[in-house]
Amino acid sequence: MNDTEKNIGLIGFMGVGKTIVGRRLSTALNREFLDTDAIIEMTTGKTISDIFAQDGEKHFREIESAVVRDVCSHSCAVISFGGGAPLNESNSALIKESTLVVLLRSSLDTLVSRISKNTKRPLVSGTGIDFRERITAMYAARKGIYAGLADIVVDTDGRTADQTVAHIIRRLRL
Ligand code: S3P
To answer: Which among 75, 93, 76 has a CA at the least distance from the CA of 85?
Structure first.
């Protein structure tokens, strides 16, 4: 697939803003918007939290891989990938081949504060003293994988969602 046909995919840790930036980027570029978590919820009729609670993470990851296969078969779309989607090697191979990958990053403080305000993330739900430590450990384990897949890296701290979108458009020369 040549670069003009490729999708633009947003990856990064939970709470970094992939969905809002993805939706606005798709509007700005007049492209189809696909969000793997939203597709999973729509096709199963369950929330992500319910899938984790009732069927377990393994089952969630199987559904997620099927959705990644599907979205990667599109072209010219803007795709927000769930934070865990790139961790599986066959998912990341499909993403790499079909998609210009934008890694969104923010500081740990920003991630912790956003994630703690949202109860929809079963992997890191809860509070307590170890909350920040769990996020720190998970982020440390993932950041190399995210960086290895990224075509460009965009820091979102100090930028509004619209500024991030404008920055991505400039960096990708779209
Ligand atoms: C996950 C991230 C979530 C969602 C699920 C698992 C992860 O998506 O797919 O809770 O493993 O990082 P967001 O990154 O959109 O929060």
So the answer is: 93
